[in-house]
Specification:
Order of helices and strands: HHEHEEEHEEEHEHHE
Largest sheet: 7 strands, mixed
Strand content: 15-25%
Number of helices: 7
Oligomer: single chain
Distance between the termini: 53 Å
Strand order of the largest sheet: 3-2-1-4-5-9-8
Radius of gyration: 19 Å
């Protein structure tokens, strides 16, 4: 089962949050996209007296200075330049690729000055795939649909300039074509089934499939290869890229 408290207490997650807080400039009004349970929102109140906490489901919070709203980053219901800063982390990797540019246009539109963006860095989307027992379709780990590096992320925000860029954390899951093929043949039994996200296709909860002895032996080879890769270079790979963007002045 997914344990949010345990995940947040990990060293890498605490490092991620700390870096984002250091990167975020002070101001008056901030929009946080993907607020979830408002864990980071509460921390951001030290920097902003007025915060709008947005998620696909309206966050359940009733605290001074925080306004929870339901909304979608691809169609934000705010006026142009309504916020000093837009804070959007662990969100853009979940946006359907055909809507990604629109989401970034909306972020640019509603901020008057800054945008703080955080996404996984050069993630291997083949690693830790799952297969839904309900619809039979394959899912990328934790529902991540997009892969980012410096160039692709910066290109998504043409009306903004980079003020600061950081690579954060260490230790990424890695894989190879042979391991991917073995897992596919065996039904992806070692994917990230304890994740919070359900199936991206039908929404059903993901359930780890059982395997027989032959499949276990085949997967043992795949797991061994992945572990060797991780020790060789995956353990040193940055996990996230964080960028502080500033809106370009119109000429």
């Amino acid at each position: 089962m997914f344990d949010l408290a345990r995940q947040r207490s990990s060293a890498n997650e605490q490092l991620r949050i700390s870096d984002l807080m250091q990167l975020t400039p002070r101001g008056e009004r901030l929009l946080e996209i993907g607020a979830r349970d408002c864990y980071i929102t509460r921390k951001l109140t030290a920097l902003y007296p007025h915060i709008t906490a947005l998620d696909l489901t309206r966050p359940e919070i009733d605290e001074p200075g925080i306004t929870p709203v339901q909304g979608d980053v691809t169609a934000l219901d705010f006026t142009d330049g309504a916020f000093d800063t837009v804070f959007c982390t662990e969100v853009l990797e979940h946006i359907p690729p055909q809507k990604l540019e629109q989401a970034c246009r909306e972020i640019e539109r509603v901020t008057s000055r800054y945008a703080v963006i955080g996404v996984p860095y050069r993630q291997d989307l083949r690693a830790n795939r799952t297969r839904c027992a309900h619809c039979g379709k394959v899912n990328p780990t934790t529902g991540h649909l997009n892969r980012f590096d410096r160039k692709t992320l910066i290109a998504l925000f043409p009306d903004m300039e980079v003020c600061a860029l950081r690579l954060v954390g260490k230790g990424q899951a890695v894989t190879n074509p042979l391991s991917v093929w073995i897992y596919r043949m065996c039904g992806y039994p070692y994917g990230s089934y304890d994740q919070e996200e359900g199936c991206i296709h039908c929404g059903a909860k993901l359930i780890r499939p059982s395997i027989n002895r032959v499949e276990w032996a085949a997967c043992f080879i795949a797991r061994a290869l992945n572990q060797i890769q991780y020790k060789l270079y995956g353990a040193r790979k940055p996990i996230w890229i964080h960028i502080l963007f500033k809106k370009k002045q119109k000429k």
